[in-house]
Fold each of these.
Amino acid sequence: MHVNDRIRSVYIVIAIICSVLTLVGCGGGGGGGGDNPVAPIPALPDTPLISLKVQDLATPGTSSDHAFNQGALALRIPTSTKRERYAVLLSNGGMGSTVKINGGGSSTLNSARSSIAAVTPMTRPVCGTHFLREARKNLLPSAIRANRVATLKPMRSAEILGDVVAFSIFSGNVTNLYNATYTKRNGVLRRIGTYCKIFVDPEPAPNGLSAATGTYAINDPELNTMVKNFDEVIYPLMTGQYGPSCDMDGDGKVAVFLSPLVTQNGFAGFFDSENLSESPDSNQRDMFCMWTPYRDYDRKEWLPATCETIAHEFQHLINFSMRMEMQKSSLMSIYGGYSAYNRDHGNYWFDKITEEEAWLDEALSVGAEIRYRRLVGDPATEGRFKSYMDDISASSLTSFHKSLADYGCVGLFAQYLLDQGGADRIKKLVTSGLQGKANIFAAFSNHERPELQTFEGIYKNWTKAIFAEMNRRHLDMSAIPAYQKYTLDFDLDRSSSELPYGSGAQEYLSGGALTMFILEPPAGYTADSATLYLQAVVGSTQQTSASIDCTVMRLNDAP
């Protein structure tokens, strides 16, 4: 063969190899590949390369949506100015898997995340309501009843300041969900408001913490502010926007019991539905149990956090009591009233009440906190939202495991529901008697936007609102549709993981969870496009059944 023919053949072979690599999405689009990992060719089938259009991503805030096909996705992203920055959102609607970016590598998205939020608020302990509910499910009714402590039920309307009242209080903690024990604690009636009574536990907890004496004693100004906030803000908000308050004891007031035992057990507060039962060892009050000051939480922050938690627990009370009243007649006709025998044998109507699913019940409660904060002039954000940002790839909206990140996740979802659906729909969620996704569908099925008439549509657009909120400082929010962003600034600006075009990384993405990262040009970048190759794997096998959606959003250009 002639020398020139040999040279021509070599060029042809090289061109073919380059074409194949481009078609399967490998490399860095010519501008950022360098010595970064190269994505392996997917198993079956080969992944087509999708070229994103310049006009679809022309300004900050514009986006383009795609879905994994057979466990992979390859995108050619325009970089004509050489300064484009993009955020990439991945939403996993299927089983958990590891997502490899441009072949993966030793770097993980989680290790590269950073926060540049201006405010990092304190994070208080969790709500104990669903810990208590789960503890009950883990034990026989007879075992729970055996631990209850019968208390006298004086005339509530005759109670006066200084009275000492005995309460039977759940004493389990955050680490033992098979120990639904109760103990007797006294409460001194320290304040009587228009709509509330404030009781303070005079005795120390087993660990020595006291709310009545010493450094962490609750003082008069704190109690005065608590009553004022309850009467003027919390009660009108909750009864007006969520539903009527249950007046179990007929005194027209909700009881708030502040005990260091709650603090010792790791809770900020809890609503115990047992207090609404006819059982003789129930407190038979509409009430909440709340924490008290302690050394690990800034004293100046304790009172605002406690008032927020009262709003949180109030939603639980309203939600449960509405269901109780709606279901009582039919359940009574089947199971009858209270007796020790009926309860011990699972035939007490009260124990058969169908409650709201945990994730939506807690969402509505955290949403109530946000609304309270806004009414008193506090920032919308708080520490649990930051916890969600830190653990976003492991947090699923509808799989509630009671972690701080879970509370942050469902709370942000609740605010999105309020933004898009309005106060009337939130109230309908509390008072409908339906559960979970079906509850949301019933409330939103007549929404003016078709995109928000189903749970699936709401969820998809909520993920984009989270996406936009995390990148608020990097884009023009006016370019984002109103149904894909928040009305409030949660100060959650997260740079996520910043990856140069063509670089590799990976992260485990739980089922129902999200993750996101930023693509940006490396120094000296000169190419007109960059290729992004994404692959879902379990172990070393491509997960062809992966159900992962991908959104690419244009950010502000790199300087």
Note: Residues 3-39+51-116+493-554 form one domain.
Amino acid sequence: MDHSKFRLAPSRRHAITAALLGVASALGAPVAAAQSVPAVAVIPYPASVRVDSSVHFVLGPRAVIALSAPASSELRALGGVASEILASTLGAKGTISAQRAGAGARSAIALVLAPSDSSAGLESYRFDVASSGITITAPRTAGLFYGLQTLRSLVDAERESLDATGGAARPTSVTLPGIHIADAPRFGYRGLHLDVGRHFFDVAFVKRWIDLMSRYKYNTLHWHLTEDQGWRIEIKKYPRLTEVGSCRKESPAGRNQRIYVGDGVPHCGFYTQAQIRDVVAYAKTKHITIIPEIEMPGHSKAVLAAYPELGCTPGPFEVWTRWGVDVDIVCPSEKTFEFEQNVLSEVIALFPGTYIHVGGDEAPKVRWQQSELAQSVIKREGLKDEHELQSYFIRRIEKFLTSKGRRLIGWDEILEGGLAPQATVMSWRGISGGIAAARQNHDVIMAPGAFTYFDHTEGDVRFEPLNIGGYVPMDVVYSYDPVPSDSLTPEQAKHVIGAQAQHWSEYIATPQQMEYIAYPRALAMSEVLWTPQATRNWDSFRQRLLPSVLALDALGVRNRYPDVHGLERGRTVGDTLSLELSTAIPQSEIRYTLDGSDPSRQSLLYTAPLKVPLQSDSLLVTARAFLGDRRMSPARQATFKKR
């Protein structure tokens, strides 16, 4: 994106130097909690910030980067990250010094590893700007990496501030005030989920997904690798999983079909084990752990298509061409357990992280109810019903994972019939599953659909791409607190280790569509997971959002420009319509029409709450948000009927 084509009037610029530094005193007073005017334009917002406006440092593109241990390969890699940030924001790489940071040589950026300084947590960092340069200090390399992402945000915001004041030349240096940040995440688990089962996404996109995650201090990718509609990971012991299970003959054409119609287009794809290792290693450089999900006992139609002997019926089976939940699940036979354990053995060898996700969700019990084998297992094990049979299934898998030094995660259905001893619950059907698990002293990852399902639309469905439905706008995402403190004791609340946003791909077939549903909502979720609850403030987030959106534009990310709020639904009114409109990016202009036509940049400008006399029985209001001539939101529209 050529930002030189877009200018904001001085009264509306998003310059942090002028607009934000007036908030922080020249004496460097700490910024108050939950303050609506941010001291720095960083997302996610730091735990503690103070700004000394009497101190300034000019950061240029050929800056010297010093390390506390120049021979350390990990620190040199982080020096490379700092150099990349300078290159991408200011146009030229920095130089990594051979001299130790603090040894007398001047440096613009100093990265200091201080292992003993871990009182604020292993992912914590300190960020200090003095007149002589920038110092980032952390007890572990992860903290240094996060401090560098804070630097990226600051430079992006200041660069956009300079760009907005005029002049076509790209800024090659920025001036930062005396910023002092002491920061650490609220939660240890900060995740984004990626479903590649319904639609396959190639390695290049998965790496790009990881790149974007890392900018906002996420540390976990939940990689949903197997589904009814496709098996996406090579398992050498079972080659038919990819020979047969990775390809379906077609997908549903459209949505909510009463009579199924397919699109006639085969959809195929899987990752080799070499590609998996490559992605896992790449994620490690971004301080992101990948959790693989291998669905069982349900969502296994692709498994049954490849190995029908694992079913409770003889089939025939095919890789499923519909969305939703199918009744065919794997049968709880010894052959199935041998299969699952062999698969997981290969998965464990590829993913070094602690957790393995086994799904456990949406497993209809019809086939087990009808199966002599399943009923014999219930009788043999003294189980009450098929729900306890699923619990038995999950417990056996957990025992195997524990023997390999791993921990099991499952969706909240694994609570039904009794929870496996060490299982971590991912609560998606609301928060009740998470509360129940935490009360049983099990760790919980919150993923409730009403706040974290980003495949749900966030706008007016008439003006949005095809989607699965639902409604999860960005302000609702931002409002979420993963800890239901009114339902848990302080000790139980410690079991809520974090949360994540879900990106299911039934109706998301391209990288551009996936980015559209993720951003900028993922920025809001990053702040939910990183920033202390008492510090979070929606109005503050809104003021910091624009530089991040423009940075996404510069990367070519197809993000959804936030639309107009106030037209979510129509209503019955009297003789005069009173209407207040807003948008998540306050620097936007809102343009509207009253005749049902699509708003343009020449349409009526919204400057204050509307009071419109109704001349007829109804009034159709349509609005869009615009950012100069560069960005435009999807439309919003509502009908107001005269009482």
Note: Residues 141-164 form the longest helix (24 residues).
Amino acid sequence: MFMILQKLLKEIESLNPVGKLDNCLSDGKKQVNIGGLSASSKAMVVAHVFRKLLRPMLVISTESETAERMADDLKAFLGDGLVYLFPALGISPYEIRAPHMEIVGQRLLALYNLSCGQPMVIVAPVEAILEKTIPKRDLSEYSLRLERGKELDREKLIALLERLNYQRSPMTEMLGEYSVRGGIIDFFAPKDEDPVRIEFFGDVIESIRHFSVLTQRSTSQVESTVILPRREIIFNDDIIERYAHTLDEAQAQALYITLGDNGDYDGLEFIWPNMSVNMANLFEHLSQQTLVFVDEPGLCDGQAESVFETAQKRYKSLCEKSDESYRLFAKPERIYLDRHMFDLELERFRVVNLTVSYDDERSDVVFHTRAQEYFSSNMSFVKGRLAELYQQGYKLNILCEGPSQKERIGELIDDLHFPIGLHVARLSSGFAITELKQWFLVGNQMFTRFRKRHYIKRFREGVALSSYNSLNPGDFVVHIDYGIGKFLGLETLVVDGRKRDCLALLYLGNDKLYVPIEQLNPVHTFAGKD
């Protein structure tokens, strides 16, 4: 949380639109439409409502990037421990690939914290809402909280890790692995940044520590931790065998080829309904007290239709193939929520719609905000524009991502002869509140030209890494997003105040890419033609 944003939340309490919003919510209105919200002011309103009501909330955003920005903005207003992102799986419909484990970890951690019954905010893109996830009962059954000083049968812990498809190895180095050495059990859960070491004294947990996969030495001690499933689909090899026996020989062979033999079970997200495995949607994890915010409902509706239509087209394309492997895969309506089911689920909750535009007849509450413009990199223009805003009677606040940026911006505007507040606070986009006559300008937007992110074609000509230990400096590797590079070695970097062990990869032009070793899924050893 940042002081300037806490002050802002206090100041908006006196605004007329905030009073009208509070009245709508206290009157029990089933749906509230809020208009006139630009940029990060949407997160400001959600944060105000959360502080006012202190109940579970879900924010639905159109796409993954908007969800990530909303989650980051809410953390700036409320703090990290109250806001959780529930991301989309990151695999296209019927793409034969397992989701990255760190994404699965994020999703399961959000659901687990939601199950604890404490007030919190979940942020999810539409695609994540449509995707099925672990049922609430299974999450409870296959999660285990470990506390220092408590008794626990060591064999029970090992059995749980096996049931959750953690891979036993001599040394825990990768997400989803565990190892056993006498009274010590190490495991690397997808939700964690570092693996965990549990040391037993008899049947008592004597210590719980995080450790470095690079040195295998402890880095910190904690009082408790939670083991969550490695995958959202709870299954075992017996379930796969039973399904295979219902298929003819060619289809069964196609099943085993599709799932692969690397332990990732590729494509399982599109086969599970045929295996009689139960799954749920995110709405089924929410209590009736949950308040749901929909960020730009028109766009969300369109995105819901688009995701489901894409799934239908890809399933139809599978069916048109000459072989019968498509019979392995379930129809889209068994895998995703369609638009109709999405609307039915939403009707069970109180909904607050957040929009930039507003209609005096349809909007229950209207805010008057303005989105920050993109300033020129020409400093004389920037200073002139700031002077114009000041002359219009606005109080100016510039939000800097850190102390160094605050110092740099301070030096750049030092010759201006009117007050400008410089604050360390991170928001994704700046805005003005007309009623308060205040601008909250984001430093990065003022001095950087933002470009649309371009996605590089994913490379697939490689063999998945089983461990970073299989690499030697000078080996060529393939990153599915960035292509072929040369492995330089392991380096320890400090990111957000935490030490991270990373693979250093060298690319053309001496560009370097650092990949955290707990996120090796996108990195393959190069197996292309000479």
Note: The chain has a mean pLDDT of 89.
Amino acid sequence: MAFNNNITPGAPPLLWSNIYDAFTLINENFDSLVATVGDGSGLTPIDFSTLDTDVSPSTDNLYNLGASGYAWRTIHAAGYVVDTPDAGNGVWIGAAQIKGIEAHVDIPTGSTINGSLIIDPTNTFFKIIDVDNGNSIEAQGFGDTVKFLSGDGISMVVDSARESITFNNEGILGALAGSGIGISDASGVITVTNTGVLSLTSTTALPNERIPGAGININNSTGSGIKITNTGVIGISSGTGIIVIPDTATGIFTIVNSAPVGNTFSFVEINGDSDNRLAADTINDILSINSGQGITLTKNVSTDALTITVDPNFNLTGNVLGNTSGYHYGDVTGSVFSDDSTKIIDSVENKIYSTFFGNLTGDVTGDVTGDVTGDVTGDVTGNLTGDVTGNADRSTVSDTLDITNTNGLTTVYYPTFVENRDVGQTVRADVDLSYRTDINTLTAINFSGNLTGDVTGNIFTTLIDSADSSAITVTPKAIFSSDVTVENDLNVVGNFTVNGSSVGGSAASRTTKAGTTASIADAASDNVDIVGFKGYMLYKIQTSAAAWVRLYTDLASRTADAGRSELTDPAPGAGVVSEIITTGAETILISPGALGFNNESVPTTAIPITVTNKSGGTTTITVTLTVVQVEA
């Protein structure tokens, strides 16, 4: 801001507004002054040649020190001393520090001149070392090092005093000719020539599928006295059934089978099991035949005969199966035991133990313990323990009948009955007649005769009679499908409805019905349908937060009223029952009460409302109505 020396409060009498403006201008001058230079009246001058404080611009990277045509003559900076408070001395340009160390200047590593690194032109060096006119070694930086490594037959001697490296040949220094070997010179570039065996030539072609070198051994790969040995077939001799005929001229051997064989079986199949046939694993494999229970094997070595004898009397272990008709034929003499020694048939006691499968024809004398599945033809004499599934043609009348206590079980039971009291009647049950023992309840479609006790459900009858009419109580309601005649007084607790109208009874009590909006932003609206009554008297409206609430008679009226502002009254007959505006969580008394009703074509218990959020933030709003039902 420019310096303002024209400050006056005006001519007297002084106005406070003029004094206020004058002091405001003075404050603005002090906001812009930081020092007084020269002989200011009543102020101590500041000598910039002897400043005793730091000088810094108020804003980084904005102001200049000097300018073109207004340069400073000299700039002095203190020297740099490492590891002291003077380590920060020097000139800082960005993050680069230029240090004055005694009589020389040190600049940061990597400093360049016009983009190129600063080097000493008097100290030259090689950047690239070329090797064998093709390969090269290039220095990657000032501190890079070239390495010389010894190889096979080469050693290096380093003389630091002379700054020299001597390469010595530690390998072949010379060559002399030997047996089968010729050389071109004793030293220098020497050519070595093999004057011995140069190659081997086969006299016959290699047979098909024969691997080169197979069956051949060489005792050494170089030198003299190399031996080649045949490690394959050296000779073939005759054997049993084999005749060998050699041809010494050609070296070919002919092998002849002197005992040719006839046809034989490749496999042995047992009981048609083609997946598990017996096959010889080798030419010397043996097929073994073993005797079993009741089977005797006899062999004759001289005649090569095998005799199989079956013993008709033997102990039977395992299962006894019948033929395809399910019958077992033949006699079983002796007892029969299972694999775990469990008795199946006892020939001494003449009893059969264990489970019996299949048809049993003949008389059974004794007790049968276990389940019998299938038809039983014939008389059964004795006690029967267990369940019987199937039809019985007739049975002997029993003097006793076992009764099972089922009290407390939730199972539904169905009583049984017969058509009449004659012998041979069918026992029947009806799914519409059931009984539960846990609640002592008998359920049926119709009842005839006198009924004592409570009846839950519908009663369809032409007469409800009782010796004492006060003993008849209908809970919760009775539906009469025809005219009802009541001989004595009829006491009704609650409303008595005739053709949709209430007659007598106590009046309805007030109640509350509530609905909650979705989470809506401030000034946003949401529609809610509160489940109430078809007709009601409205007493109060309560909101959980500041809101504008409108109650309607039907959905169409709510839709039509959606564009109305809260400061505009609804038109008469617009379907608006009531509306309120709250400033927080509060209850508004509707005085006098407002009569509301549902005006849909088919009236429902829904009370349509619209809620506008006025809380100042996003939230859900609950609206609670205090109402009294006036229509069923």
Note: The longest strand covers residues 586-597.
